[in-house]
Amino acid sequence: MRSIKEYSRIAGQETIEEIEKLGSYLSGKIVQNINSTPVGGGVAEILSRMVPLLKEVGVDARWDFIKGGERFFEITKKIHNALHGVEENISEADFQHFLDVTDENLKEINLLGDIIFIHDPQPIGLIKVKNKNGFKGKKFIWRCHIDLSAANPKTFNFLKKFIEQYDYSVFSSPLFAKKLKIPQILISPSIDPLSDKNKDLPQATINEVLERFHINPERKIITQISRFDRLKDPLGVIDVYRLVKKYVDCQLVLAGGAAADDPEGTEVYNEVLEKADGDKDIFILNLPPVSNIVINALQRASSVILQKSIKEGFGLTVSEGLWKFKPVIASAVGGIPLQITHKYSGLLSRTVEGTALYAKQVLQNPEYAKQLGENGHNHVKHNFLITRHLRDYILLFLKTGFWQDTVYL
Ligand code: UDP
Predict the structure, then answer these.
(1) CA nearest 323: which of 186, 181, 198?
(2) Mutate to test the pocket of ligand 1, among 35, 36, 39, 45 (most ligand atoms within 8 A of CB)
(3) 316, 326, 328, 389: which to mutate for ligand 1, most atoms within 8 A of CB?
(4) Torsion angle in degrees (nearest 10) through CA of 224, 226, 227, 229
(5) Which residues pair with 30 in a beta bridge?
(6) Is 295 in the pocket of ligand 1 (CB under 6 A)?
(7) Single pTM value for the model
(8) Which residue, 103, 104, 115, is CA-closest to 166?
(9) Which of these, 270, 262, 322, 301, lies nearest to 44 by C-alpha position?
(10) 3-state secondary structure string, 256-294?
């Protein structure tokens, strides 16, 4: 794990000193993060970097997961999709099962934090303990990583009963927030520039990864890194590749893995395999849970990176691509427009045809691609690095009631 001091060469020494000082005001306070999976997806990606850094600056950060069976995660995936506005059939029995699993988790999980920081809908019901003995004085925060702007009303109203019992809610963008009785704080996600996923890599490592998967380094590479999830539109990515290939020779890399809380992965992976129909220039990589260097190398080897999501919370993969100076073409959904200013720091699209047209443009015009990548890198550097996120979280924790008169910056 990197030391916080190493981030000063990217974020500046003053920023790091300020974070250390702010962290010291929370010394000894327990911030207990709870989500539903240790690996897979953006929430686990962020927590795996955030928790050690919080500890290093003096916050007693912890990270626990709720447990659930196959049925529970099928239901929470349906809830996730419905919150993104997808039509889902969630029955009363499903909602009841969700509540039953919440109660089982409440028996097992030790809610020992001074601040209990719950991520996303799966563990949201743990708030039920708030008014019980022993929980007085504890602060509860709900962190929503989903774009709720088109949420299915029935599903949202089911969750709202829980959300409004929290002391604070946190959203990634003002566009995602809802009318709520509790305060809403806006904090965008981030990537860690020094993690294995994003650090600089020697060319030899990049070559070795391409060789391992028999990808030709001499030919153009179009890449999308994503869980095999319909909302990431991997089938649409294949359509894009087929359109581009009529004009520019290229290979397609679709790399992803499973997340413990996403039961749809295998089904979608099989649909992708079928659609690829044995094309030798399509590389469908089903990666093991922690494949950070491989993903880093694939992103760095790419000529263009796509994120053709139909719905998206934030889309960390967009920041990851931009940080690596890559031209990124992504759908104008969820948090992606926060990361890409069209034709400046990347390209925003809405259709297969539009994505293909832009991909063809950047593949045929390396100077344009380079300019987009450079602007994208600078935008991420100033807005979406973990140091900014760490500072925002510490200020939020202080705001919940641990802010003392003695806090001086
Ligand atoms: N990721 C990964 N392995 C995979 C697929 C994705 O490590 O097989 C990472 C990806 O690099 C990114 C995160 O998981 O850091 C996905 O976050 P994002 O916000 O893009 O999407 P989510 O999966 O949370 O919807």
Answers:
(1) 198
(2) 45
(3) 316
(4) -70
(5) 60
(6) yes
(7) 0.94
(8) 115
(9) 262
(10) ECCCCCCCCHHHHHHHHHHHHCCCCCEEEEECCCCCHHH
- Beta partners for residue 63, in sequence order: 33
Q: In what order do the strands lie in the sheet with 328-331?
A: 282-286, 250-256, 220-225, 304-307, 328-331, 347-349
Please count the CA atoms within 13 angstroms of the CA of 342 that sit on its side-chain side. 10
Query: How far does residue 227's CA lie from ligand 1's centre (Å)?
Result: 6
Domain 4-190+385-399 adopts which CATH fold?
Rossmann fold (3.40.50)
- The beta strand positions in 120-180, using DSSP E, are 139-143, 168-171
Answer yes or no: is pLDDT of 409 > 50.
no
Q: How far is the CA of 311 from the centre of ligand 1 (A)?
A: 14
Residue 192 has pLDDT above 90, yes or no: yes
Measured from the Cα of 317, ligand 1's closest atom is: 20
**Pocket of ligand 1 contains residue 309 by CB under 6 Å:** no
- Residue 290 amino acid letter: V
Which pLDDT tens digit goes with each residue over 341-384?
999 999 999 999 999 999 999 999 999 999 999 999 999 999 99
Q: What's the CA gap between 223 and 212, in Å, rounded?
A: 16
Specify the residue with its C-alpha closest to ligand 1, atom 25: 41
**Least confident residue range of 99-108, 255-264, 394-403:** 255-264
Q: What angle do CA 302, 308, 314 make, to 5 degrees?
A: 95
* Binding site membership of 316 for ligand 1 (Cβ less than 6 Å): yes
Question: ∠279-281-282 over CA atoms, to 5°?
Answer: 70
The DSSP 8-state label assigned to residue 132 in this structure reads S
Q: Taking the CA of residue 49 as centre, how many other CA atoms within 13 Å lie in the half-sphere pointing to its CB?
A: 23
Question: Ligand 1 pocket test: which of 76, 146, 197, 227 has the largest number of ligand atoms within 8 Å of its C-beta?
Answer: 227
Q: Is 49 in the pocket of ligand 1 (CB under 6 A)?
A: no
List pLDDT tens digits, range 297-309: 999 999 999 999 9
Q: What whole-number distance in Å separates Cα of residue 88 and Cα of residue 105?
A: 25
**Are 233 and 309 in contact, with CB atoms under 8 Å apart?**
yes
How confident is the model at residue 399, as a pLDDT?
Answer: 92
* 4-190+385-399 shares its CATH topology with 203-383: yes
CA of 320 to the centre of ligand 1 (A): 10
Please state which of the four CATH numbers 2.30.30.20, 3.40.50.300, 3.40.50.2000, 3.40.525.10 is assigned to the domain occupying 203-383: 3.40.50.2000
Q: How is the chain split into domains, by residue range? A: 4-190+385-399, 203-383
